[in-house]
Structure prediction request, 254 residues.
Amino acid sequence: MSIEAVGYLAPLAATPGVDAAAVAGTGVAGNATAPSGPGFGELLARGLDQVNRDLVSSQTDVQSLALGDAQNLHHVMMRLEEAKLAFQLAVQVRSRLLEAYQEIMRMQV
Amino acid sequence: MDYRSAFQISASGMTVEKLRVDVTAVNLANVHSTKGADGKLFRPMRVVSHESVGFAATMRHMGFSAALPGAAVASVESVDAPPRMVQDPGNPQADEKGFVAYPGINQVNEMVTLMTAVRAYEANVIAMNVAKTLAVKALEIGGNS
Prediction:
């Protein structure tokens, strides 16, 4: 999954054609001029990493259940549900991003 | 990730009820057990559960903001029930009067315990499913469908 495709939205304020002071006045883009904390791409990568870890751990649980090592069934099912929910959240974030991207691509300049 | 706290709470309840079913199964399995090799009669067991004390601290440690208590097993203790005496002179375990001592297990009570444990387990599953449905519904916010 390429996160870089989203990345080039961020330096919008820094492009020569856009006046940074004028953009900062709008308030919304004020954050873009002075970013603090982790970037959006990093947040996304961290979230995907968490989802991946959930999926791997639920896979390990299912494996131990198949081998007869599982302590109890409901913990395995619950891990599976947690992984499923985390994955659905990631899918929703992806579809929102794609929607926003397509909305911007459709924009008349 | 606060939806996970509801999962953990329901899981703690399910663990308690599962143990209750296990212990009831032990009681029912030993309903016709006589004295063992050590001369001791099986004593019926019961699960005592209480609100989990360390659960809230564990939840806070795991990063959940709402630190609510779950359920936990306090102890599995033996019940002092008088043995059931059955007249059976042919039994090698019979005493001089021809009585055999069986554990004082009330099968009807055990069946009721089993049923309530199953219902409580089901209730925990439903509570967990509702929490999951809430999370899934929240993911539909702003969706096209």
